[in-house]
Specification:
Helix content is about 10%, strand content about 40%. By secondary structure, the protein is mainly beta.
Length: about 350
């Protein structure tokens, strides 16, 4: 019996060793004695340039919900395979709107702004950064800075709000009590007031000026050239140092939080990042996290019945340079190689998914 057990143990060790030796990604469970918790982990060697991160949105909309599995599998093409994914930002799960709260960047384009919590970004060559990120928007009319916007693709009820909607919103827009500037191919096509069921055209945008700021629409004329620019302010990572990843170079990003580790230092302070609910800041809960190592490898995982400080300790013991929470509770889910490692309790708004290019031998 002892011989059988020894043989089985050796086979298991060889199998794990082979996975680490020949595959750029692996899943495993790790027990952390210091907090008496086990983490379900997926480790991906993002130094491999055939591996790419992708933000996945439910049904290709901003405000929708779907399963992590469907969103991950939807990133499969004829030239890649899906490695796996993890649930993404917090969203309005209880009021039916399914609007996200966190920042989303896809293919170098900001498609949603959170301006709270923390954000993880990836450059085109898979360099990574996690920090508290603030994004502002400057708007241009005929190449002159003439307006600003509060956000992107997120309806706002404040009377002085200005919101830009892009084609990624993929849903009807209302300008009730407001004015809207309709832009197609970078040019103002027309201006409307108090209208529903407005849709953004391909390569276009709609800028909605709510009641107290709709007078600003007087600056726009049909035929004007319109553009906007997103400005990034990183709170902790010095953007002037050549060695640091720059937000302007980020092509893929997802925001949630609170952060757990920034630039090697434990943070784990939800109140400082705009969170006020105890279920996020102090209570034990099902949690998801993402991060990266000093060797530029990506980590995603889930832990049950863990609080913020304990999860930060887990990430520190994993020697992560940066780490942050994703949405937790019923949203927490981890998908790998076509199967759930952690099954979700509900559909989610968005996810972070990794694919691998199929290289012909």
């Amino acid at each position: 019996m002892k011989k059988i057990f020894l043989v089985a143990f050796i086979i298991a060790c060889v199998t794990v060793t082979q996975i680490y030796a020949f595959s750029p990604y692996v899943s495993y469970n790790q027990y952390f004695k210091s907090v008496n918790k086990t983490a379900k982990i997926v480790l991906i060697d993002t130094n491999n340039q055939t591996i790419k991160p992708k933000v996945a949105r439910a049904n290709e909309k901003i405000a929708s919900a779907d399963s992590l599995k469907n969103m991950a599998d939807g990133k499969k093409t004829a030239t890649n395979r899906v490695i796996g994914g993890i649930n993404g930002t917090y969203f309005s799960a209880y009021d039916g709107s399914n609007l996200p709260y966190g920042t989303l960047i896809e293919d170098g384009k900001v498609v949603h702004i959170g301006n709270y919590g923390s954000v993880m970004g990836f450059t085109a060559d898979n360099k990574m950064i996690i920090d508290n990120l603030s994004i502002t928007i400057d708007g241009y009319i005929n190449d002159e800075k003439k307006f600003y916007a509060w956000g992107l693709n997120h309806p706002r009820s404040e009377k002085d709000a200005i919101v830009i909607y892009t084609e990624e919103y993929n849903a009807p827009i209302s300008s009730k009590g407001a004015k809207a500037v309709i832009v197609e191919n970078g040019v103002v096509k027309y201006i409307v007031e108090n209208q529903d069921n407005l849709w953004v055209s391909q390569n276009g945008c709609i800028i909605v000026f709510n009641e107290e700021v709709k007078y600003l629409v007087e600056r726009f004329k049909v035929g004007n050239r319109i553009s906007y620019e997103c400005n990034f302010e990183s709170q902790n990572i010095d953007q002037t140092l050549e060695s640091n990843v720059k937000w302007k170079d980020v092509t893929c990003a997802i925001g949630a939080g609170p952060s757990l580790i920034i630039d090697g230092k434990i943070t784990a302070n939800g109140a400082q990042e705009g969170f006020w609910e105890s279920k996020i800041n102090t209570s034990r809960a099902q949690r998801s996290f993402i991060g990266y190592t000093y060797e530029n490898k990506f980590v995603m995982g889930t832990v049950s019945n863990v609080n913020l400080k304990e999860l930060a300790q887990i990430c520190k013991e994993m020697n992560l340079k940066g780490a942050m929470c994703m949405d937790g509770g019923a949203s927490s889910s981890l998908y790998y190689q076509g199967k759930y490692i952690t099954s979700p309790g509900r559909n989610i708004n968005n996810a972070l998914v990794f694919t691998e290019e199929i290289v012909n031998q």
